[in-house]
Amino acid sequence: MMHLSSNFRYARAERDLKKARPFGEGVKVFFEQAAIEAPKDGKELLIAMTSDRGLCGAVHTGVARSIRNDLLARQGSTENTKIVCVGDKSRAILQRLFADKLVFVASEVSAYNRCIFRARN
After folding, report:
1. Which residues, listed in sequence order, are joined to residue 48 by a DSSP beta bridge?
2. Does 5 lie in the same domain as 21?
3. Mean pLDDT score of the chain
4. What 3-state DSSP class applies to 41?
């Protein structure tokens, strides 16, 4: 029975992905054609987006590892780089190595009712 349930979920996810794909393609084309230049002052902001809790350890680790590897590969040329963490998991991982680079941490972002949040802003 579990096998049938998982097949159904996979089929539904695949169907939803096909519906959403045109939106992703539009965004991809937009950014390919955007005239974006690297800043001349050398400042850089890295944003790590993870959850506050949950069973997504591999995702949290992957996000933190990507930022860690990027910063360590620069070999000391990171004085103008800052990190913003959205989610407690990214903060917990990155704070150990780069506490001096963390400038802002947002947690419980999804705890607000979206309808109420929109009305307040």
Report:
1. 85
2. yes
3. 82
4. coil
